[in-house]
Give the backbone structure.
Amino acid sequence: MKRMITKLATIFVLAAFATAAFAAGSVTGKVTAIDGEKVSVTVEKELPAWLKKGDSVQAMGGSPTVVDVKGNVVVLKFGKAKAAKIKADSKMTISESAGDELQGC
């Protein structure tokens, strides 16, 4: 019984650290404008240092490119199909790209 409790406690601690690590590498904002493939997201907090123009990020299950960063507004370029599914005033979480994405065929 004592071993089981120790294992469960270890699992919960590891899960807490994993959640904190994920949260540190992401930012949440509100979609304010959609212009074709470009989606503008306004973030309430200060933007993280890893969010730079020209970089790929992870958002909405895809890997958009950061087109522009002005103040608290980030403009992302999605594919046409993905951008068509995004609705204005919806929440979006932008995460740092892991860098291990598959490249074309």
User: Anything to note?
Assistant: The chain has a mean pLDDT of 84. The chain is about 30% helix and 35% strand. The longest helix spans residues 2-24.
